[in-house]
């Protein structure tokens, strides 16, 4: 059997991936008056207000909790992912949350997900700035080779946003996860490679006026 060809050393990141991942609970990122800071119980009241804007917990395809479950949601996030509160610096309000999860040191991969924003923040600079900050950190600080996203097959709004971003659709995982109502969902998987980041970064920076 032919042995796989190793990647050239010049494309391998020099950063310590796991060390950089372990620092994520202390990382604060900001651009275009949007700030991502580690999600803690100090954000509970703001996140509860955010989830009520549009009654997001009633949407089948989101991970948003009911208002009374926000504290538990934050505590659970601390054990399963590297979660951020999304702050609109023009108002100081918590407008949502997003996260890195499932870091893979061997591949140098991380997933971005558990993302939701108050309804009044949809299709604003908020999501554009968040994706810019997360992708820049993933590729330029963590040294990722690839970033992945998973979306419910019914969440066509999220899929359209990822395609506008420049992510590539990899395929569909059938009968992949259980929704909050107990039904089984298919998952659409997207990815972005390090080699694709420069073009995406330039487009995002132009949109944000950076």
TrEMBL record:
The keyword Transferase applies. Keywords: Transferase. The keyword Transferase applies. One of its GO terms (molecular function) is acyltransferase activity, transferring groups other than amino-acyl groups. Residues 34-195 form the N-acetyltransferase domain. InterPro entries: Acyl_CoA_acyltransferase, GNAT_dom. Pfam families: Acetyltransf_3 (PF13302). This is Acetyltransferase, GNAT family. It comes from Kingella denitrificans ATCC 33394.
């Amino acid at each position: 059997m032919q042995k796989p060809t190793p990647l050239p050393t010049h494309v391998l990141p020099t950063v310590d991936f796991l060390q950089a991942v372990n620092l994520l609970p202390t990382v604060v990122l900001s651009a275009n008056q949007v700030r991502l800071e580690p999600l803690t119980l100090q954000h509970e009241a703001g996140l509860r207000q955010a989830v009520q804007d549009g009654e997001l917990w009633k949407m089948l395809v989101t991970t948003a909790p009911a208002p009374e479950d926000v504290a538990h949601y934050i505590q659970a996030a601390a054990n399963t992912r590297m979660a951020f509160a999304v702050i609109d610096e023009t108002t100081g309000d918590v407008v949502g949350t997003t996260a890195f999860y499932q870091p893979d040191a061997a591949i140098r991969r991380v997933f971005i997900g558990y993302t939701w924003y108050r309804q009044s923040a949809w299709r604003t600079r908020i999501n554009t700035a968040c994706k810019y900050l997360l992708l820049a950190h993933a590729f330029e600080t963590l040294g990722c080779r690839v970033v992945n996203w998973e979306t419910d097959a019914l969440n066509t709004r999220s899929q359209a946003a990822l395609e506008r971003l420049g992510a590539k659709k990899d395929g569909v995982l059938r009968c992949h996860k259980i929704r909050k109502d107990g039904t089984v969902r298919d998952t659409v998987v997207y990815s972005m490679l390090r080699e694709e980041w420069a073009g995406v970064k330039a487009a995002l920076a132009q949109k944000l006026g950076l």
